[in-house]
Amino acid sequence: MNVKDAVVERFSSICRERNIKINELANISGVTPSTAYSMMDKSRRDISITTIKKFCDGLDITLGEFFSCEVFDNLDWEIK
Fold first, then answer.
1. pLDDT value at position 53?
2. CATH number of the CATH domain containing 38
3. Does residue 65 sit within a domain?
4. What is the pLDDT at residue 47?
5. What is the dihedral of CA 38, 44, 50, 55, to 10 degrees?
6. Does residue 80 lie within any of the structural domains?
7. Residue 55 near residue 31 (C-beta atoms within 8 A)
8. How far apart are CA 4 and CA 17, in angstroms?
9. Which structural domain range is residue 20 located in?
10. How many CA atoms lie within 13 A of 65 on its CB side?
11. Cα–Cα distance between 67 and 38 in angstroms, integer?
12. What are residue 14's phi and psi, to 5 degrees?
């Protein structure tokens, strides 16, 4: 799994746990719904750390809490 897929999986998991839809995540995070849906789109490869931070702020979690998850422990190498 690459890092972008792991980020999407982590946000999806948190949203499922909290029963939050993607457009709700966008609203509580102060980003447009199109930004949130774009992040979830597998064909889009880039996601900024600023966007990740905004989503974390909306979910009231720190970046440390977000990244402290097993899904990030065994990512594929980004350098090939």
1. 97
2. 1.10.260.40
3. yes
4. 86
5. 40
6. no
7. yes
8. 20
9. 3-72
10. 10
11. 20
12. -65, -45
78 in a structural domain: no
- To which residue do tokens 């490869």 refer? 45
- Give the residues of the chain that fall short of pLDDT 70: 45
Q: Which residue has the tokens 């946000």?
A: 11
Q: Quote the tokens at residue 29.
A: 């995070």
- State the residue for tokens 């064909």: 43
Give tens-digit pLDDT for 8-29.
999 999 999 999 999 999 999 9
Number of domains composing the chain: 1
From residue 59, alpha-carbon distances to 7, 43, 49, 53, 74 in Å are: 14, 25, 15, 10, 24
Q: Find all residues with CB under 8 Å of 53, minimum gap 6, and list them.
A: 63
pLDDT of residue 28: 96
In a domain, 79, yes or no: no
Q: Which two structure tokens, joined as six digits, stand for 68?
A: 């402290």
What's residue 72's pLDDT? 93
